[in-house]
Write a structure and sequence with these properties.
alpha/beta, binds NADPH dihydro-nicotinamide-adenine-dinucleotide phosphate
Length: 263
């Protein structure tokens, strides 16, 4: 039996086991997908091999340390420097990032977007900034602290910490922080958020499965919005396709995984 898992901390909220197990069951594949709460991200590779896993997903806060521990990193993950999907190939650990393509697919229904403000500067913000820029969208990043902005500055992306940011108009605002995931916090100070939401056309919160304080503010202003479930589905379909070494058609995987969203 092939075993897959999701590494993260926290990880108990993750829908990935349900999504991937539903694909394995529907396609008649002998495999099982579990959850692994990992406090120390530097142990990820060791735990991966000790559990004899065939593949894994990686979530908060270990995507950047997963990137460091791969034998090879492929595709957009090389630019993003964060990995959310791991696959074993000839005993080597291969890393990918399926969050980026998943997100682009998820925002298609908003219509044309020319500028985007990304709240947060972690692995997801990196993935989305690279993906949005590749579609010709003008990207700005806003984070609570300076520490993680270096990557964006090196990539030539406008990036600010709260204290040196002046709100402006952006077509889309995306919350990629973990504010609201297991607390009741807003991703930026309330007054700043109010001004940003007054001047935007659409909003996305990449957190799924709950109404975050950010999403509540968005809904109150009747803005078009998405939560993280569309992105979750798309990144999961692409990850499963890689887990199964591209042997099954993507549309079969997608339809099996979509079923798990009805539970
Ligand atoms: P990281 O740990 O890499 O980054 C977290 C970011 O959030 C940092 O910029 C951090 O700022 C900021 N942050 C954390 N807490 C707060 C707070 N209370 N107020 C303001 N900023 C805060 O996380 P990821 O980028 O990997 O993931 C972020 C979120 O995206 C998670 O909630 C995750 O569940 C979700 N996600 C959803 C996906 C989906 O498919 N729907 C896919 C991927 C992720 P600082 O630098 O100051 O610490």
């Amino acid at each position: 039996m092939n075993v897959f898992t999701i590494f993260g901390d926290p990880v108990s909220h993750s829908r990935s086991p349900l999504m991937h197990n539903n694909v394995f069951k529907t396609l008649g594949i002998k495999a099982c997908y579990t959850r692994t709460r990992l406090e120390d991200g530097s142990k990820l590779r060791e735990v991966f091999f000790s559990k004899a896993l065939q593949g894994a997903n990686v979530t908060v806060p270990h995507k950047e340390s997963a990137y460091e521990q791969c034998d090879e990193v492929r595709g957009i993950a090389q630019t993003i420097k964060a990995v959310n999907t791991l696959v074993i190939e000839n005993g080597r650990l291969i890393g990918y990032n399926t969050d980026a393509d998943g997100f682009i697919h998820a925002i298609e229904s908003f219509g044309p977007i020319r500028s985007a403000l990304i709240l947060g500067a972690g692995g997801t913000a990196r993935a989305l900034s690279v993906a949005l820029r590749s579609k010709g969208i003008d990207v700005t990043v806003l984070n609570r602290s300076e520490g993680r902005l270096e990557y964006f500055k090196n990539e030539g992306i406008a990036s600010y910490a709260w204290e040196n940011f002046t709100p402006d108009a952006y077509d889309m605002i995306i919350n990629t922080t973990s504010a609201g995931l297991s607390d009741n916090e807003l991703p930026v100070p309330a007054a700043m958020l109010k001004e940003l939401l007054t001047r935007t056309k659409a909003a996305v919160d990449v957190i799924y499965g709950k109404e975050t304080p950010f999403l509540r503010e968005v809904k109150e202003r009747c803005l078009p919005y998405k939560d993280g479930s569309d992105m979750l589905l798309s990144q999961g379909v692409l990850a499963n396709y890689l887990f199964l070494h591209r042997r099954y058609p993507i549309d079969q995987i997608e339809s099996a995984m979509r079923q798990s969203f009805l539970y």
